[in-house]
Amino acid sequence: MADQKFVNRGRSSRGVEYPVSQGADVKKTADQKGMPNRVRFSGAQRVPVEDLCRIRVRLQSPDGTRQVGVADGPDSPDGELRAAAEATLQALRQAAALKDARLDLREVSTFDAFDKPAVMVSVSLDMGAQSRTLLGFSPLGSDPPRAAALAVLSATNRFITAVLA
Amino acid sequence: MKDWISRKVRFVRAEAQDTDQERRVSVELERPQSGKFVGKVARPSTELDAYRAGALAAADAVRQAAGIENAVVELKNLSVQKVFDRDVVIVEIVAQVRGQERDLYGVCPVQNNPAEAAALAVLSATNRMLDLA
């Protein structure tokens, strides 16, 4: 069941009201069937804090447990995206119980792709002597924190799937 | 050694053969125990750049490798942009699987081979919905 806290509306730092979270976890789609190692996006919420942008991102593990990441950033459009990306990584670290690997947010950038605003994230993955950079992308749409979270999940999904396998 | 990246379907290679008039690109994927899947495209060079050719061939290979009846994997848009001080290819794919249609996005930094970068971006876009990773 969708958590009602995550289906309310928020106000972006651009001054535009956007729906917070689409309740993606409650919609069983074709790509969710028979794929036991997926971490799913559940919701992103802007938490009111004076002079700060605080974003709470919620994920759902394959076993149904939920993880919440919370991160703060400057009260600006870029700060909101970065906080959402960082909160997503926090939640992912809980979901995947990383032992020998480390995921860190490197860069977050917005730009126009296909005539629409979009967000790209860069995440570093360090595994002892090995390291690599993972890129993820999402259209910005009407919910920037959600877009940043989805970009992080897109960047990391093959790694998280391998960890959970 | 543990494989840190899940790859049910592995990218093997993207090969381009350009003549004066035609561009041919093939993209080869491999699914262990199922075999190899080769997507191909051949078009007049004036109609198709190396990125788009790689993406089209990859979409063909992905559709085969997915092994899902009546699956559709089509390239909708492709763009190469400078992001984080590097060239990145971005693809938008329309996938229809089991009655569901989705727009999927994938990215890959461009290194030496434009067709390969575009093919990997297609894999990045489709790996979750088509269960390739």
Descriptive account of the structure:
The complex is a heterodimer of chains A (165) and B (133). Chain A is α+β, with helices and mostly antiparallel strands. Chain A has one domain: 2-Layer Sandwich (Double Stranded RNA Binding Domain). Chain A has helices at 77-96, 144-164; strands at 9-11, 17-19, 40-49, 52-60, 66-73, 102-113, 116-127, 130-139. In chain A, a hairpin with a 2-residue loop joins β6 and β7. The longest helix of chain A has 21 residues, at 144-164. Chain A starts with 8 loop residues before the first strand and ends with a helix. Residues 1-33 of chain A have low confidence and may be disordered. Chain B is an alpha+beta fold and 133 residues long. Chain B has a single domain (10-126), classed as Double Stranded RNA Binding Domain, CATH 3.30.160.270. The longest helix of chain B is centred in the middle third of the chain and has 17 residues, at 50-66. The radius of gyration of chain B is 14 Å and the shape is globular. The mean pLDDT of chain B is 90. Classes of the chains: A alpha+beta (165), B alpha+beta (133). Chain A binds chain B through residues 29-31, 34-35, 37-38, 101, 106-107, 109, 111, 113-114, 118, 120, 122, 125, 127, 130, 135-139, 154, 157-159, 161-163, 165, and chain B through 2-7, 77, 79, 81, 83-84, 88, 90, 92, 97-100, 102, 105-109, 124, 127-131, 133.
